[in-house]
Specification:
By secondary structure, the protein is of the alpha/beta class. The chain is built from nine helices and twelve strands. A hairpin with an 8-residue loop joins β11 and β12. The radius of gyration is 19 Å and the shape is globular. The N terminus is likely disordered.
Length: 306
């Protein structure tokens, strides 16, 4: 009986983290539509102080095993949206996954068209009149970060800026890129150098699919965006538990159409969203931190784009 009670408590806790018992606020709505016979849902968070005029939109894609609400709880991008004045959308992946093009997720295996799904959400929001179509941004974590890379390749004209956290380009993305015309888009990658799930140096992730290194991914985007060799480098030090955490910022600003390519290197950190408690405590994600706020880093990058 004790084991049953303990398991029930653990399950309740996990479901709560995943958002099953989340109560929508007055400035939020849950919406859905049917795409290719599949019901697809997403949560919209409007900033608390908003005059109803078109404002920027950030689409935030969760990692594997997550959902839209868990992404919101994990990143607290809704709080950043309230402070900075933008709309943030948290879509739900198919069976807690995204068809990021690598072929290994439930969504990929089911041939789910997540490119059309995300594009359709953006078009719906623009048609609603709440979003400035010239200020639409995208961020994704892990599986969602690989999905963000795919969307930057296949729908670059949709985004003013794209950032992947704990994800980079895959070999599958490179093959896909050959099928699309080059269109400059500002791209950023934020990655931990000691990520045990998605190797910073590239190679094979645990699902057996090959990825590029973070450095190579940045160089590819530098090339695709027509950037010159000029690079702005900055370093920020943070103290945590008596140790120094070094964050490197590398930014190519001299690119076609005023686009930007940036790297935020999290030295010594792992796979989880920096600044927040990992949502999958039973998975080794490497070193975490509480002294930096990845969500602010994300928005600072987006907000800096011309």
């Amino acid at each position: 009986m004790k084991k049953v009670i303990i398991l029930s408590v653990l399950l309740f806790g996990l479901l709560s983290c995943a958002g099953y018992f989340y109560k929508l606020k007055t400035n939020e709505k849950k919406d859905f539509f049917v795409l290719d016979g599949v019901k697809r849902s997403y949560l919209v968070h409007y900033p608390k102080k908003w005059d109803g005029l078109p404002i920027p939109l950030l689409v935030a894609l969760h990692g594997r095993f997550g959902n839209g609400i868990s992404m919101m709880k994990q990143t607290k991008l809704n709080e950043v949206a309230d402070e900075k004045g933008f709309i943030v959308i948290f879509p739900d992946g198919y069976k807690r996954s995204w068809a990021d093009g690598r072929g290994s997720s439930p969504a990929d295996e089911a041939s789910i068209n997540d490119v059309v799904f995300i594009e359709s959400i953006v078009k719906r929001m623009v048609a609603e009149g709440s979003v400035d179509p010239k200020s639409v941004f995208l961020v994704g974590h892990s599986n969602g970060g690989f999905m963000a890379q795919r969307l930057a390749i296949e729908k670059p004209e949709l985004w003013k800026g794209v950032m992947s956290v704990a994800a980079q380009l895959s070999v599958a993305h490179l093959k896909t890129k050959q099928n699309f015309k080059n269109h400059p888009v500002s791209v950023g990658i934020m990655a931990g150098t000691e990520d045990p799930l998605v190797p910073y140096s590239g190679g094979y992730v645990r699902d057996g699919k090959e990825i590029l290194s973070v450095a190579d991914s940045i160089l590819r985007w530098k090339e695709w965006n027509g950037c010159n060799e000029s690079i702005d480098k900055k370093t920020k030090d943070f103290i945590e538990d008596g140790n120094t955490l070094v964050i490197n910022f590398e930014r190519y600003e001299q690119c076609a159409d005023n686009k930007i390519v940036t790297l935020i290197r999290l030295n010594g950190l792992g796979h989880s969203w920096p600044g927040e408690t990992p949502m999958l405590p039973f998975v080794n994600q490497g070193k975490t931190t509480k002294v930096i706020d990845a969500s602010l880093f994300v928005w600072e990058f987006m907000d800096s784009l011309k």
